[in-house]
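Practice problem: predict the structure.
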Amino acid sequence: MIFSELYSAYYNTIAAIISRIIEGEHSEKELQKIVAERAFGESVLTIMPALKSEKWQLVHSDMTTSLDHKPTMPLTTLQKSWLKAISLDPRVKLFGVKFPELDDVEPLFTADDYYVYDKYSDGDPFEDEEYIRQFKVILDAIRQETQIKFEMVNRNGKTMHIRCHPLRLEYSEKDDKFRLVTAGWHAVSTVNLSKIKNCVHYDGQKVLDNYEWDKKQDTLTVKVFDERNALERFMLHFAHFEKQAEKLDKNTYLVKIKYAHDDEPEMVIRILSFGPMVEVIGSENFKKLVIEKLKKQKSYGLK
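Answer:
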């Protein structure tokens, strides 16, 4: 792991508590608030008792500390190199994230060091100046909960003038495209950013209904065979999906994942990337899509 447990929620919570104590805060109630805000739900039952009992010899029982300086956690050279590599991704730059302290750091890897399979080659123009400008307008409107207006050409070749509430941005790994989920516009609720033209903030007073079309959700059920660290890789790969996991035996787990129906082709590719470590149990329609994909690969001589 490039970032060790020293950067976990627990360590950051303890660091915040020690910093507040050094600043003069000794109320157990106030320090407990830090635990509630920074750590996990069950942490309130463990962190403060461990500190107060001096099991963790960082704080005395009277909520004072022998430490004179606030904790700091400087990055290692390896960690800086990894962050430098991530900072070079044009998608990161869309969010206005800057890493000025990494100017003299060599990246751990570059885009020339790897190749992503099963991804379309006509992804969004992430380095195009107009695309970047529109992305920032949309992102700012989402954060400020304001409206935008833009133009787009529909499938019939007709130019549409749209005013809406931008709710959130979604990224498709398979398509290599960002999509905007909207409200207040009843034609569609999702549009590819690459189709948006002349996007600007809307400052008018006319109120839009804060309405979003419900996206159809499907459930995928799979067995994961925990060989070669497959379970950990699987859970990390689908970390941003709503899911449930159940242990069937020593090395077999049943996992249910909820996903948007529109993302089904991408889900098929993701599942197939785990090979024999994952077996699709349901739905039947998803199983058919997997079989069709495998037959297509076989017809191309792919194994």
